[in-house]
Amino acid sequence: MKHARLPTTCETCVLLLLMLATCTTAKVFPVPTTEDTAHWHQLGWSDLQEAITVASSNNWNVAKNVIFFLGDGMGIVASTAARIYKGQKHGGHSGEEGSLTWERFPHTALLKTYTLDEQIPDSAATATAFFTGSKVNQNTIGLDGTVFKDQCIASLNPKTWQTSILDWAQKAGKHTGFVTTTRVTHATPAALYAHSPNREWECDAKLGKLGHGCRDIAKQLVEDAPGRDVKVMLGGGRFPLGATSGVATDKWSCLRRDNRNLTNEWLLQKKAYGNNAQYVQNKQQLMDLDTEETDYLIGLFSDSNMDYEIDRDDGPSGQPSLTNMTSVAIKILSKNKHKGFFLVVEGGRIDHAMHNTQPLRALEDIVALEEAVRTALSMVNLSETLIIVTADHSHVMTINGYAKRGNDILGIGHTPSDIDNLLHTTLMFTNGIAYNHYWNGTKVTRPDVRRENTSMLGYQPLSAIPMTYETHSGDDVAAYAIGPMSHLLHRMHEQSYVAHVMGFAACIGPYTGNCTRPINQWGT
Ligand SMILES: *[C@@H]1O[C@H](CO)[C@@H](O)[C@H](O)[C@H]1NC(C)=O
Ligand SMILES: *[C@@H]1O[C@H](CO)[C@@H](O)[C@H](O)[C@H]1NC(C)=O
Ligand SMILES: *[C@@H]1O[C@H](CO)[C@@H](O)[C@H](O)[C@H]1NC(C)=O
Ligand SMILES: *[C@@H]1O[C@H](CO)[C@@H](O)[C@H](O)[C@H]1NC(C)=O
Ligand SMILES: *[C@@H]1O[C@H](CO)[C@@H](O)[C@H](O)[C@H]1NC(C)=O
Ligand SMILES: *[C@@H]1O[C@H](CO)[C@@H](O)[C@H](O)[C@H]1NC(C)=O
Ligand SMILES: [Zn+2]
Fold it and tell me: Which residue's C-alpha comes closest to atom 5 of ligand 4?
């Protein structure tokens, strides 16, 4: 089957070299000189050829493996900005005409992100939709729609517990794992294994009065199926897992009060059954691991969330990249030759950079996610591996007009306002911390952005209304897919549909023995 051609490792090297050679402070990047009419007609023709081929070569195989990539908060706007950013920073050219790896996947759909009770979603309810196949209420994890946030007693009724694709995959004999740059107990991974009416109950210290009698998310990960049967989990979160004591590093740090070392309990539990279980804490330890000999792996690379890609210490005692974690996870999980695996990889901090209205940090994290996707593609057999790349929700960032082709995506456009005659950055937020309007003695005005270094690390473009933590937005997100059954993502869908596509593709969960293909291509 023919698919959009993906860059080879060698081309990636060339790109990196180009990047080193063209590191300048230039604000306008060169536009390709070949964009004449013939170019667009040629491009249209080759896209047509590809579309015709794709339409007649849908892959109806059973997906032995499924890899689900999630860019937390990576709305379509962020993805577009990252496409341009990648071309400019990593390619030294204008960028608009380029593409992110997943943008060349044969199938793309749109997903509706609203939750049962809110128009604008949060990551707990969206992750639950992705992994259980049903929409639920905001801030709740792995429960059904009868339970609302903080309803501890209602959540204790097992009838409200939804099974997730992690469970479906394990019941089918697949190896399972997840990789994230957030804490392993954060909302997205938690929806794979926990049932909690509040996403913040990551450790016992956060249960509070409302959570009295409920079990924290970390405890569910280590003590309950399907969490305890996960073969590989990599991310941040030593605090909630009791691997270290100390002082909180951020407001989400969840230091255990019961003094249990769940990381050690996890190791002992695996070893008691004769498994080779490993705990790694830095990049070197992860990369030195003997993946052939390792049955179970937990990697906790920071006390709370891992660092943003741009801030990450890349040395041996620092943190691994998302790519490093993804490749180790695939190596261990793919040892299950006959039954295959299910893996979730989350670029979890795109969302945090957006909440802090720092586009540069967010775009670097998206480029890091893209590299992880590219690495995964090079390691799997696409005839039997379904790969989906999507986002849980979007943010209120916008790409506002007008700027010339090739203009620095982190820079300033060329069109001053016809009201105050001032310029603005291309990327802006409708709400957020950087509400820099001020009284100039005559009226309320805003800064002259030409005096600011808009591509500086940590730069926060102007927001329309003040808010300490920028909000999510309610627009649709895209889902890009390749591999068996990827064509089932084909129009606007509900977010919860994605679990059904993965389950049907792999013939697991509700689709065990219930995944008849209209076209049977097995062995033909
Ligand atoms: C918890 O257990 C892990 C794994 O054995 C160990 O590395 C760590 O030092 C322990 N942490 C504490 C606070 O005892
Ligand atoms: C870790 O990932 C980076 C890219 O993110 C890559 O350049 C490097 O080679 C990887 N390290 C190892 C040891 O595989
Ligand atoms: C890829 O998977 C297909 C379907 O399972 C199989 O027929 C083929 O031999 C595999 N290719 C390689 C290179 O392993
Ligand atoms: C304040 O801003 C207004 C509109 O931009 C401008 O006309 C006026 O001259 C400014 N006043 C001062 C004191 O700078
Ligand atoms: C803006 O900040 C970036 C990143 O710190 C730096 O490389 C660049 O030189 C700065 N530009 C100016 C004009 O100061
Ligand atoms: C197949 O799965 C669907 C969705 O879960 C379910 O409604 C249906 O009853 C199942 N059919 C069979 C024959 O199991
Ligand atoms: Zn968020």
Answer: 420
Those residues with Cβ within 8 angstroms of residue 425's Cβ, 6 or more apart along the chain or in another chain: 410, 411, 412, 413, 449, 454, 461, 462
Mean pLDDT, residues 456-464 taken together: 96
Q: Which amino acid is at 417?
A: S
Provide residues with CB under 6 Å of ligand 4.
420, 440-443, 445
The rounded distance, in Å, linking the Cα atoms of 75 and 69 is: 14
Q: Which two tokens stand for residue 32?
A: 């390709």
Mean pLDDT value of segment 400-421: 96
Q: Which ligand is nearest to the CA of 286?
A: 2
Q: Which of 92, 29, 72 is nearest to 366 (CA)?
A: 72
Whole-number CA gyration radius for the chain: 23
Question: In this predicted model, what pLDDT tens digit does every residue of 8-38 receive, in sequence order?
Answer: 444 444 444 444 433 334 489 999 989 999 9
Per DSSP, the residues of 355-404 read HTT-HHHHHHHHHHHHHHHHHHHHHS-TTSEEEEEEES-EESEEE-S---
pTM passes above 0.85 = yes
Instruction: Give rounded-to-5 percent helix, strand, coil for the chain.
Output: 35, 15, 50
Evaluate: CB of 269 within 6 angstroms of ligand 1.
no
The two structure tokens encoding residue 187: 């909302």
Share of the chain above pLDDT 70, in %: 94
